[in-house]
Amino acid sequence: MGSPYLAALLDLFFPQRCAGCRSRASDVLCGGCAENLPLLEPPLCARCGMPAPFEVPACSGCRGVDLWFEGFRAPLRYEGVGREAVHALKYGGHARVAERLAAPLLARVLPEGRLDVVVPVPLHPSRLRRRGYNQAALLARALAGRIGVPFSDKLKAVRRTRDQVELTAAGRRENVRGAFEARGRVRGRVLLVDDVLTTGATMSECARVLLEAGASGVYAVGLCRAC
Ligand SMILES: [Zn+2]
Ligand SMILES: [Zn+2]
């Protein structure tokens, strides 16, 4: 699409910045950053998406932990260019990062079988007001458009949660309990979308709420996984 001439002309008047290193680039990533994407390759834990020595149904990190989603996958590790791309989404609201970089990467980690609706992890209204948009919704919309599955903002955050960074895994589960509600009934199998997965506590709680609201299953994806 678009001639090289037009692209060059557009670049002259509307120079883009690489989402990985902020240098001028003709696309969402410069050549160097595109080559340095921290791809999260198999073997992975089938349940939580963590790298494992070989494909396992559940790894030592998630065995015995209640996770309400069927499985989780991320195309990238949360480091380097992956971390920068999340930052560009979160603080820059760059829709083109979602459309040109994240959606094609996420489309590579989808589960087998039918998906009926794409739902983002919600942001609490007070955070939404401050930031102006929900980065998970940017991702979910871009992915939904790409794979031709309806987008629906089915979840809302009803309680502000503490910043998860300094909490333990058990503390995170406690922190998100009761933080989300579904907007009405949910039908079919849900693809739940967030930017980064760390312990899975937030996505698991969202999945629990969606199942309670009628979803037949929930599969979770995120742009990055903290490993
Ligand atoms: Zn770059
Ligand atoms: Zn695991």
UniProtKB/TrEMBL annotation:
Domain Phosphoribosyltransferase, first and last residues per copy: 136-221
Keyword Glycosyltransferase attached: yes
Entry keyword set: Glycosyltransferase, Transferase
Organism field: Rubrobacter xylanophilus (strain DSM 9941 / JCM 11954 / NBRC 16129 / PRD-1)
Top-rank lineage group of the source organism: Bacteria
Domain Double zinc ribbon: 9-62
Record has Glycosyltransferase as a keyword: yes
Family the entry assigns: Belongs to the ComF/GntX family.
Protein name, as recorded: Phosphoribosyltransferase
